[in-house]
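SEVERITY: medium
COMPONENT: batch folding queue
REPORTER: lab tech (J.R.)

DESCRIPTION
The queue accepted two submissions in a row. Attaching both inputs and their returned structure tokens so the on-call engineer can compare them side by side.

ATTACHMENT 1
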Amino acid sequence: MTNVFGKYTHYNTVIHKLDPRIKIIGLIIFMVSCFLPYGNFMNTFLILGVMALLIIILMLISKSSFLDFLKSLKFMWFMALFLLIINVFIPYNSINSLHVMIKFSNGYTLYWEGLMNTLMVLIRLIMMMALTLIFTATTTPMDITYGFEFYLYPLKFIHFPVEVIAMTMSLALRFVPTLLLEANRIMNAQKSRGVDYERGFISKKIKSIITLIIPLLISCFSISDDLSLAMNARGYDPYAKRTRYRKLFFTKKDLFAVFFIIIFLSFFILISVLSKAYGINLLEFLFYNIPKGSTF
């Protein structure tokens, strides 16, 4: 069976067995760590490389599909172009030393810093997508709901509808693979009618996309209506007091995961603080400032 980005796939792996509350906090910490400032471009790329290696290891452990993840990246070309325009074609007035990439005859200059910023943002977005894939592929929608309810529970004291918000977030996450499947079905149907989404000028591609968006919106409303009718038919009441079919308990695996997350967060916060406060270059620190006589 073909995997879909964001769809839960059942495997008997360690990550699948982890408590969803641990996975939610781990997901947030990983994403925050991706966007921490690390001083300069070289430090940032080195840290992002370490994070990418950890993400690849997590994908291998969770048996997440690399092929489906790579397929999902083809939709990022528009984001890459937009970021390139924002970072490369807008002058940098706040940076003292810039490295010229291209200088035009009208006096406008493109800088390498803009290209590097674009690359860093794209890498971070790709890593966030990979982390989201691991989370949604290893956690059932109900477990996601339980996890969000746990973290939102203190808001109950101010009469905040925690169960409603948790269920809404769970349904939103569950709709991602559903919409991808529906979009793929509509695209195949339109291709059979002669619509080409890949070739032609931008204006032609925009017209082709319109033939996808309108049926997709209609399909979304139809799916949402069917879902609401099904939930009403089963007597779903978001404000009713409910019990849990499966209780959540912390195990030794969860404690080990918490320990790993704390070590991970502490390490990258330390690197970020040292890089910003003391201007440490990680490459020089690791490879050049080695005492004589020490083994490497």
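ATTACHMENT 2
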Amino acid sequence: MTDEPSKNQAPNSDSQGGSDAKLGAAGSAAPLLALKGLDKRFGATHALKAVDLVFEAGEVHAIVGENGAGKSTLIKLLTGVYPRSDGEIFWEGKPVALATPHEAIDYGINAVHQEVVLCPHLTVAANLFLGDEKVRFGLLQHGEMVREGQKILDEIGFKIAAAALLGSLTIGQQQLVATARAATRGTRFLIFDEPTAYLTRQETTQLFALIGRLKAKGVTIVYISHRLEEVFQLADRVSILRDGQLVSTQRVSETNEEKLITGMIARTIEQIHYKET
């Protein structure tokens, strides 16, 4: 496998995704991120099988599939946690490695995971600036971080106190803090993994409003959820993964819940009901 293929090498068209990996939806500009034959093996386990996908700038692209379909593996490949076994990744038409999480972040790729991976013993503000702390004359400027952190939270519509200890918040509020941190660090490609699992209805409304604002600014949102009603509410396009393979990519306006379920499990709704009875 070559991590950095020749820049003159153009990928073939994606019959599943419906777009050339070097061209955007209009056929005139490279998409923000494109995958060509992305493959991941763990010994004898073939977790992701030659996946071709195109992600346009400023779209909400949902990924659906059953547990074990390859969604988590895809997230870890895009965020540099796992090295790919084969295939190519293109960022704005140019091949990239995304070999480490640091490299992915440098490109503006970030993820909000279902499990919060922040520091509960620190304040919300300290978590927002973790790794990018405000320091003057060698001293941590916590007051400044609280003020700026509160401004960030207020601007994105999250009703959370920046001075509060993260561990004193509900799991849903902690999830929103992780979202605020990911969304305000120069992110251009943001992955959400089951983001509403622990959110209240009000928190979900706040999250969806933020996603809408990020989309309007040209940020690409990858939305992974088993809640299909959210897919139809938020997404522009939806891709189905099954057993590590891409089944299809289509516009949300051109499909329905029954078709998505059939693609995810390779059985129709009628077949499911027949088996259950």
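NOTES FROM REPORTER
Residues 115-185 form one domain.
No errors were logged for either attachment.
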